[in-house]
């Protein structure tokens, strides 16, 4: 018979799931709940790790689906424009129809995204052991979670799951850093491996943010240079020497900014790949970033705490780094 969660356990689980409504800003709450309750309540630990996975992976799936829908929408509009080049009424009707369908899809997908954590919170508030579709059962198998048993969750796989979600969340601008930052602060002393993975995830997040800021700054510099050289006066001519120089400078900076923006998705893909590799049992290091972080923060080694001072280690922890061959997430 499954034990009934206490009121405190239910509150932790409810808050962890409802934090998804903050759309990225709530990433720290599941990590806090897991860190505080991981050896007190496996029900809370499992629900918090589920909530963390839903926010990281769920947001990724939602965003990719959203971008795919936009691409298909644009493709269909181009087909309509080619098929009826001289029929403006048909084209405008199609554009209006696509716009309506786009907004319906946007709000419907957001509604579904927010509905699942609300259902999860209600279920946990009633003392039920909620599992998200597709992810919940696989995560339970990965963590060796059994509500009726007495064994705790698999500690190695807990750390790998938290580290992987820190990598996956790179796709969430700025707020995605909350997951690895919180994991580092609360569990860095216990696990040198998790500390390193969190640190390099934070560094990678900062690189992506820096690229966005540089692209924005270059765009603004180009616009300011163009305005400074041409002015707002109606007498100013684009064909003059200053006007041409302004146009060249503006388009040059805008082109560089565009190339930087186009490179950002490659960083997002690298973050997803890092998370996947960590879940599969690799001690992944980002190219360049991982090596730089390793100079300042020990990577951690399997089965030892030699990378942490004795005063910072946890003597109750038998292994400092996760095993290199964790079970997969393919359980049915």
Your description of this structure?
Helix content is 66%, strand content 0%. Helix 6 runs antiparallel to helix 7, helix 6 (155-168) runs antiparallel to helix 9 and helix 7 (178-187) packs antiparallel against helix 8 (192-230). It has 332 residues and is an all-alpha fold. It is built from ten helices and no strands. The model is unreliable at 302-320 (pLDDT under 50). The protein has helices at residues 7-18, 28-37, 42-83, 88-125, 136-143, 155-168, 178-187, 192-230, 241-279, 289-296. The longest helix is centred in the N-terminal third of the chain and has 42 residues, at 42-83. The chain folds into two domains: 1-153, no CATH class; 173-327, no CATH class.
Summarize this structure briefly:
The protein has helices at 7-18, 28-37, 42-83, 88-125, 136-143, 155-168, 178-187, 192-230, 241-279, 289-296.
The percent range for strand residues is under 5%
**What is the CA–CA distance across the termini?**
23 Å
Shape: globular
Please tell me how large the radius of gyration is: 25 Å
User: Helical region count?
Assistant: 10
Helix content: 55-70%
> Mind describing the biggest β-sheet?
none
Helix-and-strand structural type: mainly alpha
Low-confidence stretches: 302-320
């Amino acid at each position: 018979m499954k034990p009934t969660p206490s009121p405190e356990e239910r509150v932790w689980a409810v808050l962890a799931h409802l934090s998804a409504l903050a759309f990225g800003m709530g990433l720290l709450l599941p990590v806090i709940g897991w860190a505080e309750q991981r050896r007190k309540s496996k029900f809370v630990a499992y629900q918090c790790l589920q909530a963390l996975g839903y926010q990281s992976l769920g947001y990724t799936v939602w965003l990719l689906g959203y971008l795919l829908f936009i691409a298909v929408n644009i493709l269909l509009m181009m087909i309509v424009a080619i098929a009826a080049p001289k029929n403006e009424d048909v084209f405008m009707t199609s554009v209006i129809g696509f716009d309506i369908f786009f907004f319906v899809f946007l709000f419907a997908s957001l509604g579904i995204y927010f509905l699942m954590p609300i259902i999860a919170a209600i279920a946990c508030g009633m003392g039920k052991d909620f599992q998200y579709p597709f992810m919940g059962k696989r995560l339970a198998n990965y963590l060796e979670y059994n509500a009726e048993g007495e064994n705790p969750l698999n500690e190695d796989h807990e750390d790998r799951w938290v580290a992987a979600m820190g990598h996956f969340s790179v796709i969430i601008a700025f707020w995605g850093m909350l997951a690895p930052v919180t994991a580092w602060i609360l569990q860095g002393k216990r696990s040198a491996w998790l500390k390193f993975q969190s640190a390099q995830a934070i560094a990678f997040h900062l690189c992506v943010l820096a690229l966005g800021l540089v692209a924005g700054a270059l765009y603004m510099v180009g616009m300011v240079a163009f305005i400074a050289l041409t002015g707002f006066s109606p007498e100013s001519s684009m064909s003059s020497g200053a006007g041409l120089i302004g146009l060249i400078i503006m388009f040059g900076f805008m082109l560089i900014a565009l190339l930087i923006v186009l490179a950002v998705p490659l960083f997002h893909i690298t973050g997803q790949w890092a998370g996947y590799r960590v879940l599969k049992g690799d001690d992944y290091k980002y190219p360049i970033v991982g090596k730089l972080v390793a100079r300042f923060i020990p990577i951690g080694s399997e089965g030892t705490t030699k990378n942490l001072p004795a005063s910072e280690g946890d003597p109750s922890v038998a292994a400092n780094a996760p095993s290199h061959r964790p079970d997969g997430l393919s359980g049915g």
